[in-house]
Amino acid sequence: DTAQELFLEALAICKDLATNRDASYIHIQLGHIAVTLNQLNQAQDHYLKALGLARELHDQRLQLEVLAGFVKVLAGQNELPSACEYLGLALNHPQSNHEIKLLLTQTQIQLKQQMGQDNFQRAATRGLERGLETTMLLLQNTKLLQLA
């Protein structure tokens, strides 16, 4: 609760200062906290807000960080093929970094175990082939993550 409250305070400050990069990063962190608390609707909301800001900034690395969050939401919803597709893109995109890879290591292991190596690899390849721009448009413009 304390971390979440502090990030919400920081978000209010960012809105006052109009710093979209910081606001996007804070929404990503709030999304990660919500995933940890198994509050997937709340996580999705934060990731979508971060995605909008990251796209306004044309920041691919920030978009990949958002995508990593969506991987965790989808895995939590047991939407394994979609989670694998997004994970494949997040891990293998040229702008991916060590932090993204570290964030997704445990999820990658779990998805491989649940899907099997061949199915996991096929899904991850589909995600990479789809590309970042198309994937971000799908996330931003559709209701892919229907949560009850």
Task: Describe the 3D structure.
By secondary structure, the chain is mainly alpha-helical. The chain is 83% helix and 0% strand. The chain is built from eight helices and no strands. It has helices at residues 2-17, 20-36, 40-57, 60-76, 80-92, 98-115, 117-130, 132-141. The longest helix is centred in the N-terminal third of the chain and has 18 residues, at 40-57. The chain is globular, with a radius of gyration of 15 Å.
Can you count the beta strands? 0
Q: What's the overall geometry?
A: globular
State the end-to-end distance: 24 Å
Topology as a string of helices (H) and strands (E): HHHHHHHH
Q: Which spans have pLDDT < 50 for at least 5 consecutive residues?
A: 144-148
Largest sheet: none
Structural class by SSE content: mainly alpha
Write down the Rg.
15 Å
Beta fraction of the residues?
Answer: under 5%
The amount of helix comes to over 70%
Mean pLDDT figure: 87
